[in-house]
Design goal:
alpha+beta; 4 strands; 4-stranded antiparallel sheet; 156 residues; 6 helices
Length: 156
Amino acid sequence: MKKNNKKDNKGFSLVELIVVIAIMAVLIGVLAPTILKNIEKARYSKDVQALDGIYTAVQSVMANETASQKVTLKEYTLETFKATSDKAKEIVNETLAENFFSGALVSKAFGGIKDTDVKIYISGGSILVEIDSKETGYDPFSSGNKAAKETESSSK
């Protein structure tokens, strides 16, 4: 009777496993920064789109005759703009969602913005929604017509 001295190798050797782990580590090291940068770009784009919603909300308020009559100043924060009338607050909240700034903005650029950080300039039908990086420390953002702010600045 012959004894079979062959071992049944069912699996990978230690060297093979170490090589595979090393290759995976190199791939992760190369791809991770690119993936993280793309995730932040996507968050920033989402936040800019959300902030453009403020501009749309202000346009909607100004198109509503009842609400626009209460808008008498040329410079507001989002908080003071919503306080001009119940109709303005209703339109802004309906357009943006009730708790717009409670975690809705997630990018590093806009992560901690509050209603008071958003400036709204209105002048002769021109509207500008802006976040000033000097005052708030966020990346600059503006949507709308810069002439509204220039008109406001020159009238002071």
